[in-house]
Design goal:
The structure is a homotetramer of 369-residue chains.
Chain A lengths: L18 H8 L5 H8 L6 H8 L21 E3 L2 E3 L3 E3 L12 H11 L4 E3 L7 H5 L5 E5 L5 H14 L3 E5 L9 H6 L29 H5 L7 H9 L5 E6 L2 H10 L3 E4 L17 H8 L5 E4 L5 H10 L3 E4 L1 H33 L17
Parallel strand pairs in A: 3-10, 4-5, 5-6, 6-7, 7-8, 8-9, 9-10
Antiparallel strand pairs in A: 1-2
Helix pairs in contact in A: 1-13, 4-13, 10-11, 12-13
Amino acid sequence: MTHIKKPASASIPHGIVSISDYEKSARDYMRHDIAEYVYSGSGDEQTLYRNRYGFQNYQIYNRVLADFSESNTSVQLFGKTLAHPFILAPVAHQGLVHPDGERATAMAANAMQTPMIISSLSNIPVEEITAQKGNYWFQLYWQGNRVATLSLLKRALEAGVEVIVITLDAAVSGVRNRPQRAGFFLPEALCEANLSDLPPPAPRTLEPDQSPALHGFMQDTPGVEDLLWLREQTNLPLLAKGVTHPADAVRLMNIGFDGIIVSNHGGRTLDGMPAAIDCIAPIRKAVGAEYPILFDSGIRRGTDALTALALGANAVCIGRPQMWGLAVAGAAGVAHCIRIFQEELEIAMALSGCPSITDITSEIFWASN
Amino acid sequence: MTHIKKPASASIPHGIVSISDYEKSARDYMRHDIAEYVYSGSGDEQTLYRNRYGFQNYQIYNRVLADFSESNTSVQLFGKTLAHPFILAPVAHQGLVHPDGERATAMAANAMQTPMIISSLSNIPVEEITAQKGNYWFQLYWQGNRVATLSLLKRALEAGVEVIVITLDAAVSGVRNRPQRAGFFLPEALCEANLSDLPPPAPRTLEPDQSPALHGFMQDTPGVEDLLWLREQTNLPLLAKGVTHPADAVRLMNIGFDGIIVSNHGGRTLDGMPAAIDCIAPIRKAVGAEYPILFDSGIRRGTDALTALALGANAVCIGRPQMWGLAVAGAAGVAHCIRIFQEELEIAMALSGCPSITDITSEIFWASN
Amino acid sequence: MTHIKKPASASIPHGIVSISDYEKSARDYMRHDIAEYVYSGSGDEQTLYRNRYGFQNYQIYNRVLADFSESNTSVQLFGKTLAHPFILAPVAHQGLVHPDGERATAMAANAMQTPMIISSLSNIPVEEITAQKGNYWFQLYWQGNRVATLSLLKRALEAGVEVIVITLDAAVSGVRNRPQRAGFFLPEALCEANLSDLPPPAPRTLEPDQSPALHGFMQDTPGVEDLLWLREQTNLPLLAKGVTHPADAVRLMNIGFDGIIVSNHGGRTLDGMPAAIDCIAPIRKAVGAEYPILFDSGIRRGTDALTALALGANAVCIGRPQMWGLAVAGAAGVAHCIRIFQEELEIAMALSGCPSITDITSEIFWASN
Amino acid sequence: MTHIKKPASASIPHGIVSISDYEKSARDYMRHDIAEYVYSGSGDEQTLYRNRYGFQNYQIYNRVLADFSESNTSVQLFGKTLAHPFILAPVAHQGLVHPDGERATAMAANAMQTPMIISSLSNIPVEEITAQKGNYWFQLYWQGNRVATLSLLKRALEAGVEVIVITLDAAVSGVRNRPQRAGFFLPEALCEANLSDLPPPAPRTLEPDQSPALHGFMQDTPGVEDLLWLREQTNLPLLAKGVTHPADAVRLMNIGFDGIIVSNHGGRTLDGMPAAIDCIAPIRKAVGAEYPILFDSGIRRGTDALTALALGANAVCIGRPQMWGLAVAGAAGVAHCIRIFQEELEIAMALSGCPSITDITSEIFWASN
């Protein structure tokens, strides 16, 4: 494809041994404006920075006397057992970085027995993705009204997805200066494959003194009544993604959501948000010990995942590394990224004295007093 | 004009999508010593730095369940309704960066329905500026005595300004090493158009052991009695600019000022001052919930404005970006800067769950405990 | 040897006056992949960085009225008197950087009257090292089972070592990306001289879904029962190395260990651990005033040693500087490093008002209130 | 002189408007090893860095309503009135950077009516310096015993100095790696002019296992009895320099010292000491409101002096800037440095609302709550 700068390598290139190696290398494979779109955060990228460096506030003890005779990395989630607590976050438009797009990602997810959350904005139709064996979830963007949203939901349900995730934190796009400066555009060859048969949105005309954000996009977001309605449209586990305030988490729990994904959208929406990792503990405190919390934003190391789990997450989602792995080496690259996360988490568990995921608690953190 | 390094562009240059783009680009249009004058802060520029980075101490939640059916960015100020809470701060000598100077800025202010505070030190006479339709305020520098000050005030009143702002924090110029090193000088072509017909100041002779700052400039500043006198010279709203200490704010309120502008003069006076943004909350606490507070110094993003409003400001003033916009693209550049601020604020309100300006309170800030 | 990039200098090169000079210079003498192995920490090297900069959190008063008529740098450790509180930490594979390897290090240790902890993974056999006069300790890695471990221990005891140190924090190797990227390999010429006659380890086969870390390496670590057994195999002082959690320290004390070495393995195991220096005080508090604590990780200055002693260590161990000294100037380089540490500690004691090691307490630290 | 790299300029070079300009420029005039000696701090220069950046922890309000009808920068010290609270700190070997050395500095001090503390280690004899009109103090280094010390003291007294300052914090030289690496040596042409006629020190032989610092230099420092004796040798004001611990300050006050100079020797002795500015307040608290405290280390701006005075210092001493001014422009350079300090302090007083030195209290500091 003409929008691919350099075709993905046929095998993992020499010297790629960590997610940061993928991050550094993947730029070489992407058209400049697409790279800016993939890598950037909003505004001055304060939140993008905090997401990554916020983990450093959590320092971890090594332990030397734990009993590892029974070791296990599996977690229970929504009635299923996952071998590792990693999930592929929904990432839109994977065709931007690889001709096989989500098809390749699904192959990797399947090979690594990792759930994949298919984006509403995938370039490959949801049915074509789920045609491969695997554990697929579906990420739903509200389509401005209930009719169109239900149509999209039903298509995903018919494709056989097992969990529904509605993203709530991107009603308005953040201030995305880096792709703006680079003149980012979606190549014509890529379509939003799941949205093509939806009824066209009702035309909305703004007065000259009205705000595109406030009087435009924000009028197309779901209200509480819409979410109560959505809850009734499926018996599948229903999650809300993009939650950072404890009060929002509690309201969503009360609306009937089966879990939430703590996330700041990888630093791509409101610049100025805290590090995503700092948002887990207050939410865990607010929703109680049993309510499922997933975490997303900035995980690049096994120790990052260990930290998120210790703060109260039940599993973690991996976003941008999918795009980096895909660009560098296609399905093999994504699979390698997942493998790196798994092995690094195993090493982190071994050294921090946690033989199983349930042993990973806030006791692992160093405290001076 | 010979002191303009490169004429302003006829349209907004490609890739200019944020205030920081204007900041970076505007240097190319300015003579070096003028750029040093415009961009620099005093001393070691600690305060200039703090002004900008102080905003990062205020982290903002995104919210996902707010009701935006009624959205509005307007504020009430001194009996008028502003469509957005932005005001053009008084900036002296705008002819330094564009031949049309304040005339072009006024055109942009008018187009964007934004109040403009005309500087005592404008290069275009106040009457010529106010001849254009618009909402004009006047910034008054004390002219050493009541006679000259009153003469200047009357000229502004006759020109039709609607609010008077006296600047109190620049009695003595700060230590301005960068323009000193660059050999900054005001081009002969530029005059202080509003001061030209004032009586010449009384000659003051210093003894060899007397200080130009303490025994010279500081003797020409208004005392409390002078401010009480000034209060009686006009019925227009009267504001004091350059206040950072709560006790000063309370005294000014008691003298009869209608509001204050919290500002550290963009880091151009006393180096060592705190970030201006840190000064709002203590002053709001001291003067009560109803007293008008404007804020000035370091606003470069919509989220900065959101932060200032949440801490207690009723509106925010924009300073240096006027000069950058003017240098790069004249009136269109200034208007574009205002538009960027407006749109970024709207996006920030949408993502932080604030459908109106009064919804922007300290509840938006993240707190870990 | 072909894996040495540049032979060690015949004398201390001009301008080498501190450990940081050795650090900077030694790279020139090492093959790239070996340098990456020696210098690197695990993961993103957060802990490597913290180890070094953590000392800056402890600020030291100078004192001007202390009585130095009786000055002394000696310490009592395990029934012996050391002239200075420095010990050479166990460092594996010293043949990587100098053809004489541990033989040269022992020569330096002997010349400087400094105890040397011989690594299980030395390239020179323990007997050959101890053939030189000196104060030798032996670092024991658990060999997967009691038979092999006992065989190695007995060999060390027969060689005449005086203290046994078992390393507990490296059951699993950390994530070592820098040597991985550099393609680090152990030159064929180097053997693990102390392990060559041990029975080969029992073969362990992992299922495809089992973790090399958790189901492989961690199964070969000693449990509490093994440590109780080990305690009975020798009457020599027995220390545990790699302890950072107070609870682990107390358990090891109760098992019968004669002391512990607080260490995070020089930042080479679990990245995310706190600065090693921050771990001393909580452990000292937990084990009481009398229990021997040694410290290791990041000591590069006499003031670092002063800080560790003030926080509760009885002596400090020096790791990487051995390799740097060895690479640059062989035995003379190592001896010079030890001399630098001794002299810098003496100067630090003089200026901080501590005429003897027991005078070095937390009273030396500055506190603002 | 051959050890001067470039002769001092005949006038202040263009663009030199701050002390930092002198700092940057002076290197060009100095032989490399001499520059390293002048500019460097001890160890890793943590304390040198802290000295400079420690001021940033003290943020200063501007004030806009203070009454400046009575403005004054003078201070009373030891029965004399100084026009400004600046004093030239003792700086050894000024001949290193200018052929006229201390003679030129004295000329500048005299021109600016600033006291000069003559170093024991001046290259120009004390009598030759005091032959110029001025306010001279003498810095005394203990000469190993009372006889030699008294001889040096008497010489200074006979030369007409007005205050005696004994330096207590440099019994042992700090770890000075930068001059060591640069091969710093004192040019033969320079003599320690005040020490040349003293009896040679008694020979001291160290055993091989004795420490040059602890058993050598520290044995030549004055004990408490020596200081009591010294106190009786003169009726002049007697100050102790190099004090940072409150307990030392109290003991020196009780011994009969008339004041202390809080200083960490410009970061040249014990690296790891706190920022000197942080040491004033605890000492002021310990010695009470009336006891004279001078401050030295890191003052480079008028606002730095303002900060030190606000924390409790009665006056501040200027060290390295003397050497920079001297190197760049001889006596005129030193005078210019003093003038910059005076004018910047005046501006800082004007903007912070302090019409006199006694108005400079901790009330000037910003506090958020």
